């Protein structure tokens, strides 16, 4: 079982502009038309928890990119678009309770997505792995990936990959707080 972040950020740690725009990310040249390992990552995943704002951003692309069940974390969203009713579900509650409910349904490897959602799961110590792709741009301002976590979290680097001249992907695994080894 693992709760995993898979996200991109700028050199200065922002996942989006202040208004939520990710134009800087989607406009990075991709001569090989690569998915940069996203499909391989999704093959490891049983389900996705994403925040409402991330869900709304996904809806803007006009096609549903996920084949795995999506759980939209929201206290305000009351209904999903009709065409997504069998593909997504609204959930609420504490991060720990949501994970327990999903694990009980057989959803063990979970992709955690969305700035606030990621930060809330990190605060609770519920992130086991992070796959963070850094784009070679400094935004100067925006929505930070890690602001407001409040406590120290230790991760070890498993590997790094240079994807192209603009992107570097780093794989992190949560450190066992009581030992000098990675958690298994």
Describe this entry's structure for a reader:
By secondary structure, the protein is an alpha/beta fold. It has one domain: Dihydrofolate Reductase, subunit A (3-Layer(aba) Sandwich). It is 21% helix and 30% strand. The chain has five helices and ten strands; from the N terminus they run ββααβαββαβαββββ. The strands form two sheets. An eight-stranded mixed sheet has the order 5-4-3-6-1-7-10-9, with helices on both faces. β9 (155-162) and β10 form a beta hairpin. The longest helix has 10 residues, at 95-104. The protein is globular. It starts with a strand and ends in a 10-residue tail after the last strand. The model has no long low-confidence stretch (mean pLDDT 92).
Q: Which CATH first-tier class would you pick? A: Alpha Beta
What is the strand arrangement across the widest sheet?
5-4-3-6-1-7-10-9
Q: Profile the largest sheet.
A: 8 strands, mixed
Could you say which structural class the secondary elements and strand pairing correspond to?
alpha/beta
**What would you call the shape?**
globular
Strand portion, in percent? 25-35%
Helix content: 10-25%
SSE run: EEHHEHEEHEHEEEE
Please give the alpha-carbon distance between the first and last residues: 10 Å
